[in-house]
Design a protein that fits this description.
By secondary structure, the protein is an alpha/beta fold. It folds into two domains: about 120 residues, FAD/NAD(P)-binding domain; about 170 residues, no CATH class. The chain is built from 15 helices and twelve strands. Helix 1 runs parallel beside helix 11. It starts with a strand and ends with a strand.
């Protein structure tokens, strides 16, 4: 393949698309309206000079396990992963905590009477995780490469998170699963809401719960370095007002929100498509607060002091109660949060 390709937007999807096109021999130009690349992978000095905070994404079990990212070999372009001693901890009232270790067996052993059910759910998924991610992270419409593995996962993933969590009786296992499933940022009572909890925890068991050294920006920088090595270029401070203004290109890809895409495409798409883009509704928002802390947070539980990520929410029932409060338009008394 040869020719010219233009990508608008330098988020993870835009950069991944640019790399795939460049690997096929196309001359790729990426336009980014902001001064820095990365989208949700940006890292900034948000509080004090020299203190780095991830603007959005922070931990990356699926980044390590992604077939695309592994094929890019970003470690050859400066990316270094760091694994904490404990991947994830979820403190509970009374000083206890639910702990997600890299090992399925170690995690199950710590969950006491719920350990057997934990092992029965996650051990098979972890064993087939490489084949599973080939399909789960592929385009939505595709011929499955591993249909039996995907079907086995799908029978569980179709269930609401609340139904999946009903297999556990103790608060530790239920909270550990709820804290991971809540990354869906949607109702945990809805069908398919259990899928993200299963895949995140399975990936954490298989690949760990790592962060990128230097912040998530390091992932974007490594992708950019790889793109440049393939002859591509990235233009920052380069907003695009219309696809027509880009000139002639064999491929144009947009890594932007649907309504922005509608404005860029103008009359180059049918009116029906324009209306669909304009009517697109985003999901619930997430709020984020950054702190610069001297020393360590004095967690009561030792596992929380050793964890790279700490989830603060409560039991599955408490999270569902928060969702109902938000649906009613009231502020929840106990919001879900994540501390990296």
């Amino acid at each position: 393949m040869s020719g010219r390709a233009i990508v608008v937007g330098s988020g993870p999807n835009g950069l991944a698309a640019a790399l795939r096109l460049a690997e096929q021999g196309m001359r790729v130009t990426v336009h980014e309206a902001a001064p820095t690349i990365g989208g949700g992978m940006r890292t900034s000095e948000l509080t004090l000079p020299g203190v780095l905070h991830d603007d959005c994404s922070a931990f990356h079990p699926l980044g390590v396990g992604s077939p695309a990212f592994r094929s890019f070999r970003l470690e050859e372009h400066g990316l270094e992963w760091l694994w904490p001693e404990v991947g994830l901890a979820h403190p509970l009232d009374g000083g206890g905590a639910a702990v997600l270790y890299r090992s399925v067996d170690e995690t199950a052993d710590a969950l006491g009477p719920d350990g057997r059910a934990w092992r029965r759910l996650f051990a098979p998924v972890v064993r087939s995780i490489d084949h599973l991610l080939d399909d789960v992270l592929a385009p939505l419409l595709h011929v499955p490469r591993h249909p039996i593995t995907l079907a086995a996962y799908g029978t569980r993933a179709l269930l609401p998170a609340t139904v999946i969590a009903s297999r556990w009786r103790q608060p530790e296992a239920r909270a550990l699963f709820a804290g991971s499933a809540a990354h869906l940022i949607g109702p945990l009572t809805a069908p398919l809401s259990g899928a993200i909890g299963i895949i995140l925890i399975a990936a954490a068991h298989a690949y760990g719960w790592p962060v990128a050294k230097g912040g998530s920006q390091a992932i974007a920088d490594a992708m950019a370095a790889k793109l440049v090595s393939l002859g591509g270029e990235i233009l920052t401070n380069s907003p695009v007002e219309s696809v027509r203004a880009l000139g002639t290109a064999d491929v144009v890809m947009l890594d932007v929100a649907p309504r922005h895409a509608a404005r860029l495409l103008g009359d180059r798409v049918p009116p029906r498509t324009q209306r669909a883009y304009d009517r697109f509704r985003h999901g619930p928002a997430a709020h984020k607060v950054d702190f610069a802390i001297r020393g360590h947070i004095p967690w009561v539980n030792d596992a929380c002091r050793r964890a790279g990520t700490v989830h603060l929410s409560g039991t599955l029932e408490e999270i569902v109660a928060v969702e109902r409060q938000m649906a009613d338009g009231t502020m929840p008394e106990r919001p879900f949060c994540l501390i990296g």
